[in-house]
Amino acid sequence: MEFPDKEQATLTVLGAGAWGSALAELAGHNGHKINLWSRRLGNTLEEAVEGADLIVSAISMKGVAATAGKLQEIGIPDHVPIVTATKGLDAESTRTPSQIWHEDFPDHPIVVLSGPNLSAEIERHLPAATVVASADMAAAEFAQKLFASSLLRVYTSNDPMGTELGGTLKNVIAIASGVCDGLELGINAKSALLTRALTEMIRIGTHLGGQTETFFGLSGLGDMLATCNSALSRNYRVGYGLAKGKTLEVILQELGSTAEGVNTTNVLIAIANREKIPVPISEEVYRLLNNEINPQEAVEALMERDLKPEFHEQEF
Ligand SMILES: NC(=O)C1=CN([C@@H]2O[C@H](COP(=O)(O)OP(=O)(O)OC[C@H]3O[C@@H](n4cnc5c(N)ncnc54)[C@H](OP(=O)(O)O)[C@@H]3O)[C@@H](O)[C@H]2O)C=CC1
Ligand SMILES: O=C(CO)COP(=O)(O)O
């Protein structure tokens, strides 16, 4: 498929929250025309997608299925790629955002955009890198061209599932990392946690269809490092707050914006139980979020697990 080679393309960005606004600014910085849509803006989806060369969704997970459904009713020309930048899992169906978009728009190229991209840093025009991944490489290259600039280095990938799951699963680990820092467990503990977490992400991520090497890239390890080491991350702040004795309800109220890791943990544990995949770190995050244990008990449970080799033969 050939995509338009225009100096100025028209992009529709769905979701005017922190990430949608930052992505709109990045593409606007490259001279493209941006139509931003959000419930809070009060414009209609019909007018927002009119004339779009590319549609970007940066809607929180809880709004993806409904918005994709509405857009399906409206209809968009077949060649227009849909870029999904949401990092989460659907609570009802356990699907990833790209799976939802693909089911509703089977004839459209679907591109996943994900990487270590804390929006507050991007808004300050600090340099960053990200990945655009698709089964349709021409569509990934089209998205790469529209977003790449001196502010954002954009890499392509042919592994949308691995790219999407890296960004999604690391949010659970960011909660664990916030707990680790909140309890002041030290750098040894944090290094052990993140390294074992990467093994866990690869175990479940490859089971669900991602490629191992993708989890060592920007959208996996890269995003995990960014999110697990920054108080700009809302998921990290959830874990940090829990370690400091706050309730989840108070933490989420104080955040006032999306921390996808909370819902993702619940969905991930449902998947892991269904598929019988061991996810010990995520399991402790789940028990903590659901008030089954306190942060110190979560640490003890991880330290007291059965002794075993670092790698199973079938891993990597
Ligand atoms: N912030 C960041 O640094 C990054 C965030 N992401 C991911 O992007 C996604 C959005 O995050 P972020 O922008 O930070 O979150 P925000 O809370 O700032 O914004 C959420 C956006 O989702 C929209 N939304 C929520 N529920 C619905 C719904 N039911 N129907 C339609 N729209 C809905 C909101 O609409 P409205 O405006 O009308 O309220 C808003 O535009 C998340 O999946 C997040 O993980 C990915 C990379 C970086
Ligand atoms: O995904 C992100 C950075 O890449 C944003 O992280 P939080 O959603 O935890 O703020």
TrEMBL record:
Compartmental location: Cytoplasm
One of the GO biological process terms: glycerol-3-phosphate catabolic process
Start and end residues of each Glycerol-3-phosphate dehydrogenase NAD-dependent C-terminal domain: 159-300
A Gene Ontology molecular function term of the record: NAD binding
UniProt keyword list: Cytoplasm, Lipid biosynthesis, Lipid metabolism, NAD, NADP, Nucleotide-binding, Oxidoreductase, Phospholipid biosynthesis, Phospholipid metabolism
Binding annotation for NADPH: 19, 39-40, 87, 119, 234, 260
InterPro entries, per the entry: 6-PGluconate_DH-like_C_sf, 6PGD_dom2, G3P_DH_NAD-dep, G3P_DH_NAD-dep_C, G3P_DH_NAD-dep_N, NAD(P)-bd_dom_sf
Function noted in UniProt: Catalyzes the reduction of the glycolytic intermediate dihydroxyacetone phosphate (DHAP) to sn-glycerol 3-phosphate (G3P), the key precursor for phospholipid synthesis.
Family: Belongs to the NAD-dependent glycerol-3-phosphate dehydrogenase family.
Descriptive protein name: Glycerol-3-phosphate dehydrogenase [NAD(P)+]
Source organism: Limnospira maxima CS-328
Gene that encodes the chain: gpsA
